[in-house]
Predict the structure.
Amino acid sequence: MKKRLISTLVLASMVAILAVGCNNSSNDSQEATKEKTDVKAEQVDTKKVFVTPEWVQSVIDGNQPESKNYEILEVSWGTYKDSPTYTKGHIPGAIHVDTSSVESEPIWNISDPKVVEKNMLDLGITKDKTVILYGSDISAVSRVAQAYLWAGVDNVKVLDGGYEAWEKAGYPVETTIEEATPAKDFGTKVPANPDYIMSIDTVQEKLKNDPNFRLVSIRSKEEFDGKTSGYTYIDRAGEPKGAVWGHAGSDPYNMQDYLHEDGTVITADEMQKLWTGSDISKDNELSFYCGTGWRASVPWLIAYDAGWNNMSVYDGGWNEWQMDEKLPVQVGDPNGGNVQYTTVDKLPTDKAAKK
């Protein structure tokens, strides 16, 4: 009887162990997978922005020089609760970052340098820390990446293809809400690279006096042609007089012209082909803009990644331009011959995008 009881207890224990094993949380099994990975990838240059999932995992696994001092950030607007993916799964160790940590209303320009610096320090970001960014929206990710490079972070990386590429590669994910360890000293004066951002005053001056300057609109064709502002909170539509079209996507919320079908960004050579017929060359001084700065950061990063010089983002974009009633505007595409020139104050105020 005693032996039978012991056997029964042993059998029950084995069943319980198997049940626990079968019902482990995905987090536990993912952590186990994480412990087993030992991915190696080629080293990349400091100014190389777009990196593969393999490279990111090799950093996590301690197989890169960057492994000693890095931070992984998932980028989206709002808190981690507003993120479309963070609570469902993210790269192990990734901390969520709000795009509002680098920009502010009402124009949505890059915030005061002291504000940006404080927000970076709160996230543990310093000049010498490698910052690896990713997210579901390449425009949001690029906005933060460009702001960090402007601020002075030496080594900023973007996971090419975003979280979807990470999942396809089969690397571990977790659902733990990660918290940052704040830093005390950024390591240099912010911004260390002020020329990466161009002011509206400089844009006006260059449009008037610099024949080598190109103000490149990274907006949909409907926005560029003045059919819609592209935004629910912007009533007027048009473009700064002298702007050239650099493509974007079908609406303000995508950048499909700058992405391959798998979600990775196009190359600098492919970007130049995209601009065929728009009188844009890497030999020009280029300043990219959109509505409020997100989309414009994508081609800027591609250019930076390729080692191009003399590139900037006109931070204020159309939103800031249309706030000054005296500024010159074009409505329509000058290349197509169907264009009207006017000033902001004469534009109709019924061009806000529908909700």
Remarks:
- Confidence is low (pLDDT under 50) at residues 1-34.
- The longest strand covers residues 70-76.
- The two ends are 75 Å apart (CA to CA).
- The chain has eleven helices and 15 strands.
